[in-house]
Amino acid sequence: MLQELTIRNFAIIESLNLSFQEGMTVLTGETGAGKSIIIDALGLLVGGRGSVDFIRHGEDKLEIQGLFTVNSQNKGCLEALEHNGIDASDGMVVLERILFQSGKNTCRINGKLATTVVLREIGSRLIDIHSQHEHQELMNDEFHLQLLDRFAWKDIEPTLVRYQTEYIAYTEMKSKWQNWTKNEQELAQRLDMLRFQQDEITSANLRLGEEEGLMEQKHVLANFEKINENLQSAYAALQGEERGLEFISEAMRYVATASDILSEYKSLSESVASSFYLLEESAMQIRQELDNLEFQPDELDTIETRLNELSQLKRKYGKTVEAIIQYNEEIDQEILELSDQETHLDQLEQDLESAKDRLSVLASKLTAIRQKAAIRLGKQIKNELNQLYMEKAIFQVNFTTQTSEFTENGVDKVAFYMSTNPGEPLKALSKVASGGELSRMMLALKTIFSRHQGITSIIFDEVDTGVSGRVAQAIAEKIYAVAIGSQVLCISHLPQVAAMADNHFYISKATTGKRTVTSVTPLSGDEKIEEISRMIAGIEVTDVTKQHANEMLTQAMKIKSQKQA
């Protein structure tokens, strides 16, 4: 549910803070006051296309923030949040969008930076904005299959999940088969190239850890003179002319003599003696290392040549020796398959045919489930249309089955068709012309699908256009029915709709200085009666219209009590 909305510097809105409640909220006001601007701001907040034209004149940026509450019923939203690494464990979702004059966008979800794609993914599961001119999924045949599946989700989910798993395996297998059935010359050229690569890698006789060992040997040979010079100096300091060990030997004798006299010096004598013998042994080891040192310039050239060979192979086949060896194992398998192409192709074709058979069985099950669901959907929509005074309307789900072409969702193409008057042929929903009839049709569909979409808030932007009288009352009651137990925001010019609202906001604009500013006022009591009277009568409000408005509110309370019972 949308709880809080903050808008700054959006069109003629300078600064606006709104709090919303559950149930049905209506927004009314004069044409041009900014009602639809609020809906536009919400659309931008949930990932709609941004434009610098939205930014209030003279400002460098616009800001929109919205606070939503979600629970376990909003499963799709919670899954999308988790998938994108966004924490909503407290049941709160805060969307924020800032649009700068430079065209730069900054989007955040619960304080975490997000792309507009992620914002749209999350936003579409929080709000469903429906307007007279933008019918979204319901007006697009491409989405009708998804809507039908949502309606029948409990029945169709197990089969659809199995189908989609098989479909992924099938498409991968088909792609592999297509690659194998390419031009024979291409395959022959590929085989020649792989064999050349295999020969080059095999002849290199690669060994794990070899490169590291060669680098160490290279380091030693490149620093031979330094190593020799330092070992010579160390040996000379111990056993050379300076005879460092002789001085330590003398010190050892002196301390030993002192310890013979006074036992307290015994540990000191042992320490000096231990140091002498250790240094003497070290001197012997240094001498041995000097005797073993032998500069081999040819060996350095050999190492350089081998390292260069390994470098060339890494540039071609992998970043490391391990990767090259792995690549060689992979091309071994591909060479084996290419060499035995006919047998391999036969096996692939058999596997592909088996996968196709499994898909066909599951696709047929999907079609059967959908066709049964379409009958139930048709009956429910017929019932909704009857309540909206479209008793003669006919609704039908048209199926087109492509048995030879599998898609991610089966072999069905679905389109919603209807006829609004007796004798008229069924037409695609997108081609129904009458604005009033279309409004009722869309509301009937929304009433049904809102139960299956898990959307936090549904927004109707003047969907009651083109209706009046008893139809207007029926639409008002239908919108209220959708709002029971959820949240609906509705922009309307119909007093019948306003009378049914649980919450009523009046949108107005005024000129302050030389600037136009939009403001929002919550209405209750006499204020609500005054506004409904204005909606009934237009400019001049009389006692009669106020009495009529009061009667409408009284009647609305009775209807709402009956629907809640």
From TrEMBL:
Record's GO cellular component terms = bacterial nucleoid
Q: Which family does it belong to?
A: Belongs to the RecN family.
Any one GO MF annotation of this record: ATP binding
> What superkingdom heads the lineage?
Bacteria
Coiled-coil positions are 331-372
InterPro entries reported in the protein's UniProt record:
DNA_recomb/repair_RecN, P-loop_NTPase, RecF/RecN/SMC_N
Q: Which residues form the RecF/RecN/SMC N-terminal domain?
A: 1-513
Swiss-Prot/TrEMBL keywords:
ATP-binding, Coiled coil, DNA damage, DNA repair, Nucleotide-binding
Record's function text: May be involved in recombinational repair of damaged DNA.
NCBIfam families registered for this protein in UniProt: recN
The name this protein carries in UniProt is DNA repair protein RecN
Family annotation (CDD domains): ABC_RecN
Q: What is the lineage of its organism?
A: Bacteria, Bacillati, Bacillota, Bacilli, Bacillales
